[in-house]
Specification:
Blueprint (H helix, E strand, L loop, with lengths): L12 H13 L4 H16 L4 H12 L9 H8 L2
């Protein structure tokens, strides 16, 4: 079981009012939306997963790097 903690956020009154109105229109608790936004932010900014990290390492070594003169040339070289 995870421990829940509280968090306090300072924001403009108008921003809060607009956010709460949209949350109410969608019939979703504001706290759930904030948690979803936090998870999304973490996922988008987290350290790369193992496959991405390995791909970056290979690219730095010049392994499996494709060079092209244009987007069309790159697509042709990649077979797409």
């Amino acid at each position: 079981m995870t421990k829940e903690v509280q968090m306090s956020i300072k924001m403009e009154a108008e921003l809060r009012e607009r956010f709460m109105a949209v949350a109410a229109d969608r019939h979703r608790p504001a706290a759930q939306i904030i948690r979803d936004l936090m998870r999304l932010y973490i996922a988008e900014n987290q350290t790369p997963n193992a496959l991405t990290a390995e791909t970056l390492r290979k690219g730095r070594r010049g392994v499996d790097v494709h060079r092209a003169t244009s987007a069309a040339d790159l697509f042709k070289r990649l077979g797409i």
